[in-house]
Amino acid sequence: MTADASEPLAQIGVVGMAVMGSNLARNFASKGHTVAIYNRSPEKTRAVINEYGHEGNFIAAETIEDFVASLQRPRKAVIMVQAGAATDAVIEQLADAMEDGDIIIDGGNALFTDTIRREREMAKRNRHFVGAGISGGEEGALRGPSIMPGGPVESWETLGPLLEDIAAKVDGTPCVTHIGPDGAGHFVKMVHNGIEYADMQVIGEAYHLLRYAAGLAPAEIADIFTEWNKGDLDSYLIEITAEVLRQVDARTGKPCIDVIVDAAGQKGTGRWTVKEALDLGVPTTAIGEAVFARALSSALAQREAATEAELPAGELSTLEALGVEKTAFIDDVRRALYASKLVAYAQGFDEINAGSAEHNWDIKPGDLARIWRGGCIIRAKFLDRITEAYENDPNLPSLLLDPYFTGELQKGLVDAWRRVVVVATQLGLPVPVFASSLSYYDSLRAKRLPAALIQGQRDFFGAHTYRRVDMEGTFHTTWSGEREELSY
């Protein structure tokens, strides 16, 4: 139906009736809210009404003006359209039709700097703008996502109850909270997605080792992941991994995994996470290697050329030749997977803390762990432990330094981690995130790093100076002269 003056007004509106937008609208409606819906192509709006109109109260609009007119004040409209220019266009249309105090919510995967810009532009027009990260995919949008809204506190006071209604619930607690001002919500969603990249890659590396080192069939590996999902690795991604590996292709009768081209796509949030980490000076090595692994997997022509050239592999071995027992190796992979996942989360939280400090957002990391426990793609059992870690110490220098996780690492995880990386190297199997995460861990715990030599080199060729361990000040050695040390 279309907006009519005699009809009750909608509590919330959704622009964009692709799957995510329509599912989000259906979620609101299922919780008893009247929902206004609009799409640039009216056919999509009508299709939603025809197929799902029985699920709740919808007001279908065919123009932006009618859409805005159908909303209660302060008007609240969620944009679920393609990021970039399309989002900017819809924002402008809504802002033109809205009035002071109305709220525009961008629920897409926007770059947080765009969100900061948009929030400032809307503030000048007395419109509230909220960048809200929404995780959980199509199913989450319908059944209950994890939601990460930024923007003005005043907007949260109005939006909060609505978002709490549709968010996933864990132990009765909604998986949503106000993250912070302007771009904070989309920044956190960006890093969430970066962690997701690393998480998926280490699971992929674990599968690869079980398949090509231990020689297990996909169905056997599916059973292993199902068993792992009963313990510390309990998570959505482990759960669906077992489902993917158990699937058989109807056309060929082969495991589905064997007919999927081994080229992983990406939409940009992982790259954004790594770029911002570089700007902030935060080492997110696990996320970076996961992004590069996807890029390399998609370089199919280059990989094919390397295969045809028969690049030397060196002397490779087998588990049997190495004296590695298969059952023990499988358990080592489980432990290495857990340790590597922990590093990915620790690095992600480091980046969030650095971004919060840089932009004065005052993000509470414990709140993030709490709202990520349900609805989102990286939901996992050990997020309960992360929540507790930040509750115990909100200023925790690194997640790895929390007593619980330090204790976990002392239970043989590190030894298993090392064995897996060594065996993978001896077998010629790539484990970029397993290996880089272990190197990060060793660098973090090292008393001395080779950076002293690097700083000496920098001073030699560029007079960049250095500091000493035994006295205050900045120093430079006249390397091309008398090699006298000068202090500044």
Task: Give structural attributes.
single chain; 488 residues; alpha/beta; seven-stranded mixed β-sheet; two-stranded antiparallel sheet; 19 helices; globular; pentose shunt; NADP binding; NADP
Structural notes for this entry:
A seven-stranded mixed β-sheet has the order 3-2-1-4-5-6-7, with helices on both faces. Strands 8-9 form a two-stranded antiparallel ribbon. It has a two-stranded antiparallel sheet with strand order 10-11. The chain has 19 helices and eleven strands. It is globular and about 80 Å long. β4, α4 and β5 form a beta-alpha-beta unit. It starts with 11 loop residues before the first strand and ends with a strand. The protein is an alpha/beta fold and 488 residues long.
TL;DR?
The protein contains 19 helices and eleven strands. By secondary structure, it is an alpha/beta fold.
Question: How would you state the average pLDDT, rounded?
Answer: 95
CA-to-CA gap between the ends?
A: 75 Å
* SS content category: alpha/beta
Beta content: 5-15%
**Shape assignment:** globular
Summarize the biggest pleated sheet.
7 strands, mixed
Question: Strand order of the main beta sheet, please?
Answer: 3-2-1-4-5-6-7
Rg, please? Answer: 26 Å
| N to C succession of SSEs | EHEHEHEHEHEHEHEEHHHHHHHHHHHHEE
Number of helices: 19
Helix content: 40-55%
Poorly predicted segments: none
Number of strands: 11
Outline the secondary-structure elements.
Layout: E1 12-15, H1 19-30, E2 35-38, H2 42-52, E3 58-61, H3 64-69, E4 76-79, H4 85-97, E5 103-106, H5 112-124, E6 128-135, H6 137-143, E7 146-149, H7 153-166, E8 169-170, E9 173-174, H8 184-212, H9 218-228, H10 236-246, H11 269-280, H12 285-297, H13 300-308, H14 326-359, H15 365-371, H16 383-392, H17 403-427, H18 432-445, H19 451-462, E10 475-477, E11 485-487
Parallel strand pairs: 1-2, 1-4, 2-3, 4-5, 5-6
Antiparallel strand pairs: 6-7, 8-9, 10-11
Helix pairs in contact: 1-6, 8-11, 8-12, 8-14, 9-10, 11-12, 12-18, 14-17, 14-18, 15-16
